[in-house]
Amino acid sequence: RLRVREALGAREPAAALVTVQGWVRSVRSQKEVLFLHINDGSSLEHLQVVADPSLENRDLTFGSAVEVQGKLVRSPHRMQNVELQAETIRVVGPCDIWSFPLKMKERHPLEYMRQFPHLRCRNNTLGSLLRIRSEATAAIHSFFQNNGYVHIHTPIITSNDCEGAGELFQIEVSNEARQSAEKTHFFNVPAFLTVSGQLHLEVMAGAFTHVFTFGPTFRAENSQSRRHLAEFYMVEAELAFTESLQDIMQVMEDLFKTVTSTVLSKCPRDVELFQKYVAPAQKSDITHKLFFSSCRIPYSEAVEILKQASQTFTFKPEWGCDLQKEHEKYLVKHCGEVPVFVINYPYDLKPFYMRDNEDGPQHTVAAVDLLVPGIGELCGGSLREERLPFLESRLQRLGLADAYQWYLDLRKFGSVPHGGFGMGFERYLQYILGVDNIKDVIPFPRFSHSCLL
Q1: φ, ψ for residue 144 (rounded to 5)?
Q2: What average pLDDT does the structure give for the chain?
Q3: Torsion sign across C-alpha atoms 116, 122, 125, 131
Q4: DSSP per residue over 17-49, as a string?
Q5: Of 82, 379, 388, 413, which is the most buried if we count CB atoms within 10 A?
Q6: What is d(CA 138, CA 151) in angstroms, rounded to the nearest whole number?
Q7: In whole angstroms, what is the distance from residue 177 CA to residue 74 CA?
Q8: 226-264: burial string, b at 16+ Cβ within 10 Å, e else
Q9: Once rounded to an integer, what is the mean pLDDT over residues 409-424?
Q10: 3-state secondary structure of 291
Q11: pTM for the full model?
Q12: Integer Cα distance of 367 and 356 in angstroms
């Protein structure tokens, strides 16, 4: 039994019978020969099946599931080495082509496929995306494990608001159990879906030096824009014994280049599909992104660049205000459409855990954001405040000292300089593939289909 990818990869014909299972992507019946193209999701390319017309039956249609047994023979088609000469064709699952939303040999736009979240994975574009996503996921794990990081499963349900923005989904019991829990929380404290695994990673970095997590995170930002998701995957890493933002930036860059190289080598045809049909207007292809010469500018300099811009911004750039997407895109353009590291953000703009630079009069922290063309922020990180007096003072001012007593303990018992970063996985895919709507890089977009809500 062979996968379609394995069959297509065969260099020479084989005398032995093989079995291939998949779904019919096209049917063409001629007087003396029956042609099928079948695919099982393992490859963008379809396997051509050549059969005697007597094997055709009324259930053998576009979309039907089949099992074909036959021999791999040399193909006269210049695009593939072999084809399958069928001896038997069994229809495992018929498909009603009249009600099936996908049509044979029709290139359905992504907007159309969003109507059918339960069927969109059968579309070529979404199939390619999911294969790329799978290979990128494996490459991320390989990168960290090959560099000595320990993989940590951080909690999905937590009492911490790591980002401090208040955009949290709170966990509540169902209606059936609510009456018994009226006077108390299920976990005795308010619980939320995680916005980041960072604080838990800091705990582990105190024992394992280099750690990472890669899992779902949730933001309750009420936005239906093309760049926001309520549920997305985040790659996060923490490095103990590091005193330089440069170390953090180097890991960001190495991670991006390693994962992207793997995607290029493992999924060349899938990437080519995006370059040809989804984002043909991109100024540079994915290979150029591998060899970027990144620009590094302090936040203060970035604000001055924005203030001197001839462009009129919706949000006026001011020192002490967060950079909006329009600002980020302008900075990338100003630096020559290359990735930009913006470092040293205002102290009052960032969360409590970021390291105080002790500079003045403009008080900043050792934070960094990686901005990339077309997307804006791709990665965000910082050195963490490892000095107990500094952290204690800030938490007291924010009224968080009691809630984060455990976090203070980490600074009492063997504290070391450390830092880390997070990268939104879907934004990474958007960037390398040129996808405009972030909802098109997730397996299951949120639509009003009861089976997927």
Answers
A1: -70, -45
A2: 89
A3: positive
A4: -EEEEEEEEEEEE-SS-EEEEEE-SS-SSPEEE
A5: 379
A6: 13
A7: 64
A8: ebebeebbbbbbbbbebeebeebbebbbebbebbbebbb
A9: 96
A10: coil
A11: 0.91
A12: 9
